[in-house]
């Protein structure tokens, strides 16, 4: 009787499972098929285990896109963590005249449609001579990651007790010393959230890459995948292999540290 | 005596100088901490917005010198039926986000607390769609919606329906893409609601149990009212996010067929980087910025009044 009452719950849970999970199963299963397998029976799941597609897409340039994405993400996230934390320290813990205005200026960037900046940034990259290089992406990536980073970091920094800072001051610590030895160790969980949030978003970023990059040597993964689409118009298993490889890093990280990823991704919206 | 006075003055003067120095040093410190971020932000966010506004007054192809034409781009924009279609489609995304995505996210979050086996494992899968890049999602779903080999048509065949050319039909393309958006973002709201539900004190439910409340009453009288702040903040995120929509539409339909799924974002992109109407595209971009600004101001004002009311009622 009791388990019968739970039946509707099981049905809803199962439907949600199928709707969220099936596309991934389909993607991986198709990636493992040969083209003729796919045309014979496009819907049968896991009928063949053929790894050739993965090798092929790697040879067709996916490894280059991969490397580019890693470089851009690591450099931009590293930079945004440092300069974001530096800016968050006075914004959260010092009184000065333009504090509130500066803070609002930074965090209002979260609401900004990127399109409002595209043309000038495109022109800027040309006049700086970085158009179509990874350098063109790094500047905008840092700038557009700052708002959420400062938002998360200032929230955490505000909660550090003033006494800690004063004790360090009496010991003759400079502001930079306090920042390095008191503040930074205290906000480690927030730094983690900032790193995860920005890394995932930048790994997946598309608009700036689309506008600022044109040659395959400089393409990041999302842009490369989009370019693959033309090459693979008829080779669905090949495209699915590329999609699988591109999604793998984040899914693996997620499976190993679910709570951290979830907290990081929703860091701006969920406190604690 | 006079000597003492002057030395006192000297001490005061000295103290004042020191205070001034300290203040200056403080300002310098703050400047050093904030300036790297401010510099990058000014260069890639603030300057571009002002430049976009400036470009929007020109007829300009992006390379040669533009011609100043005043507000003509804006006049053209308001008479451009494609722009109004785009604005309407952006509105559809907003409505879908608020009235489909958020309720679905809430249902998913409630399911996470359902007393059934394996829900922990299932919830990990529920979150998957939010982790995948939008481009990858778009490409994957193009094949799911494929008229011949797509899984969606396979599914509706089971129920006796004919194949549908989802993405190339003017009436179905928008629905198909909106479905994918819901699929991608519902898990995000699920997590927001999960965090809020965890925060509801257990005692409230215990008290309700003692009063003999049924699960529906517990939901409508306790859970739902206490989730209201999360519903509001989720709606804000959804509205602001809808204005920025671009990737999934660009990949899945490119704004087509025949502009049926055009967004402000895709239209701006095409005008700027396909047709090289940079002045006109800047006008579209600035309107996008302006709409976002208005939305933010409305939210701030509403929030201000809500807080003021809160102060009076307490």
From TrEMBL, chain A:
Residues 66-257 form the ABC transmembrane type-1 domain. InterPro entries: MetI-like, MetI-like_sf. PROSITE patterns: ABC_TM1. One of its GO terms (cellular component) is plasma membrane. It is a multi-pass membrane protein. The chain crosses the membrane at residues 7-28, 65-89, 101-122, 134-153, 190-213, 233-256. Pfam families: BPD_transp_1 (PF00528). Keywords: Cell membrane, Membrane, Transmembrane, Transmembrane helix, Transport. It is found in: Cell membrane. GO terms for biological process: transmembrane transport. CDD domains: TM_PBP2 (cd06261). The keyword Zinc-finger does not apply. Belongs to the binding-protein-dependent transport system permease family. This is Carbohydrate ABC transporter permease.
UniProtKB/TrEMBL annotation, chain B:
It is found in: Cell membrane. The chain crosses the membrane at residues 27-50, 92-113, 125-144, 226-252, 272-299. It comes from the Bacteria. InterPro entries: ABC_transporter_permease (IPR051393), MetI-like (IPR000515), MetI-like_sf (IPR035906). Keywords: Cell membrane, Membrane, Transmembrane, Transmembrane helix, Transport. One of its GO terms (biological process) is transmembrane transport. Residues 87-299 form the ABC transmembrane type-1 domain. GO terms for cellular component: plasma membrane. PROSITE patterns: ABC_TM1. It is a multi-pass membrane protein. Belongs to the binding-protein-dependent transport system permease family. This is ABC transporter permease.
